[in-house]
Amino acid sequence: MKYWLEKIEGGITAVPGVEAAGVHCGLKKNGEKDFALLYCPQPAVAAGVFTSNRFKAPPLKVTENHIENLVRAVVINSGNANACTGLRGENDALATAGETAARLALAKEEVLVASTGVIGSYLPLEKMFAGIREAVEALSDQGGSDAAQAIMTTDTISKQVAYRFQVEGGGSFVIGGMAKGSGMICPDMATMLAFLVTDAGIEKTSLQKALQECVNYSFNAITVDGDTSTNDMVLLLSTGSGNLDITEGSMFWEPFKEALMQVCSELAYMIVADGEGTTKVLRLTIKGAVDYKSGKKLAYSVLNSPLVKTAFFGEDANWGRIVTALGYSNVDFDPEKVDISLGHVQVAARGEAVAFDELEAKAALMKAEIPIEINMHMGTEEITFWGSDLSYEYISINGAYRS
Amino acid sequence: MKYWLEKIEGGITAVPGVEAAGVHCGLKKNGEKDFALLYCPQPAVAAGVFTSNRFKAPPLKVTENHIENLVRAVVINSGNANACTGLRGENDALATAGETAARLALAKEEVLVASTGVIGSYLPLEKMFAGIREAVEALSDQGGSDAAQAIMTTDTISKQVAYRFQVEGGGSFVIGGMAKGSGMICPDMATMLAFLVTDAGIEKTSLQKALQECVNYSFNAITVDGDTSTNDMVLLLSTGSGNLDITEGSMFWEPFKEALMQVCSELAYMIVADGEGTTKVLRLTIKGAVDYKSGKKLAYSVLNSPLVKTAFFGEDANWGRIVTALGYSNVDFDPEKVDISLGHVQVAARGEAVAFDELEAKAALMKAEIPIEINMHMGTEEITFWGSDLSYEYISINGAYRS
Known about the structure:
Order of helices and strands of chain A: EEEHEHEHHEEEEHEEHEHHHEEEHEEH
CATH superfamily of the largest domain in chain A: L-amino peptidase D-ALA esterase/amidase
Strand content of chain A: 25-35%
Number of helices of chain A: 11
Largest sheet of chain A: 9 strands, mixed
Largest interface: A-B, 66 and 67 residues
Oligomer: homodimer
Structural class of chain A: alpha+beta
Radius of gyration of chain A: 22 Å
């Protein structure tokens, strides 16, 4: 049987039947869109992955409860994270779900909520309710781009992607998604906000399993600043309106996961590339790790080191900082086995300096995306992680974000 | 009995009989001092605390062996860390000890070695040997300042301190020390290089115990960038030439540790205050932690967060970032118990926002040293940690350090 994956336009609204809107309700002072609504005409099965931060924001608690049901709508605001707001924050999140449900003639348990922005401020409910009214009016099967814009905070570009999986002469499904970065990015469970929709028919357990697997190697394999947010969440809704059914182990299970992985990877990559102050994307492949967990610890130790990040910003082949970061990662390994390459240039072999051509290294470091390969020679696990450099711009963005 | 602690001039050479030198032997391109020698006329008992980084530099291996003996000299170079240099690096460190011993008519096992600077380059032995010859010539009981200058890398000021402990009408001892920062500062076991000398008579086990205790609450309670170096070490030499003998539990054991703690704290503070790009020192007191280990994890999660650091640089009371960093620290706690104050201004109570005067908060944040207090209400441990903000200058220093 012949089948293929094809990139298409439209983001989340590329999925047949799905409607979305993005409007301005007054949470952002600059007048930009700050309120998004996603609507499924049929009840959708939903899967979610949520932040591991101990300060879990109230909207996540509400969404974790509601996601047990079939879902009809997701409402998302930017400009205010509704985090560290206690019981009042939880009531505000519930009220948002309730008002949305009322306007769409749904039960409030069919509505998921998400927030992103400043921590520690209460949601201005009047503005939120105005946003709901306006967004319900604006719902459209062309609204994906507006919604993707409305969830941005310090993002400089909106992030959406969609793919159609097509079986020759047969069935098909679409997966569309949108995401936002771009600071506090070091997901552990889920990263920031990402919303994915598919029309493939798939039951809840398989959906959750596919999402968790894909998230581990996409959203959970990126870092901008090592900060894991209080509001991270990735949601995947399956409307089941398409003509292909998927279950774990069935014929299209692997192709479905590949398509989902493709969507997750592209969105995750966009988050890193648009990370606060990012001038270079670091593509770090850890080879020969003992397992996923230790490979990730090693990779994050390197990608979160401010010394490593500034060296890449300065296009300086300072591999000693990489070695140092591996060394304090708390992972057990033999320093006398470690090989490191930057681009095609090997800079360390068996934990020691090797002579290399500085000009050739410099050429590799001048590119916008820099491949780094580290072979630990301790096991067989190979995983790729994505990070960014640390620039003046990061300081400038974050020196005065709240005010 | 009456006794007191008095700050005195002279750094390590404030200790009677101790000689030191700092010279330029060609490791630094800019002609600044890069080679230091410390000499004890009598054999000294020595204690040491070393980096926990898996890539432990060869000089540390040599020093860990030699420190088992009575010690007569310490030789330190800056400009080259002799790290990731394998067997050749170890032989180079041994050769440095050997040549120093030959010039001073000692056994090479009586000489300790330390290096700091760029990782992954072999030591230029000819230059090192020239440095040894010149430093031996220059040895003087006034040489403490020269030595403190010679161990600097990106430090902008040299760091030394000395205290005399005086019993009224009776005995006394002196503790002198020098240290260097100022990047790759997130000690775990020992931080960077610090060299301490005392003339108090104290046997090896007590000396090591006192040093480890003091290091935990001084050098191991600071962080600039979360990077734990391959070359960190703190050495404490006791010449025993004074007229006070100390043993664990004896009359002056606690006063000795207090004096040592004073010296370690001041040097550690100088490292943070002169940290790369530091414009503000963050004094973070964690109260109500369960134990030292979890308190430190919480503190370092906050002090190493680039978002927290840039907020303080920007004088922005963005306490949500503090909460977030606590939340991803992997320490078990109840988010609904956490109180946070910046200066005298409480910004969060029981994990939630409290209304506070923004102008009053801003006033606290404009100071050069900012007290932060976090009460976890989980236990009784209280510890103070020191960190720094993250500024444009840090990027500028580290974007092109190696070249």
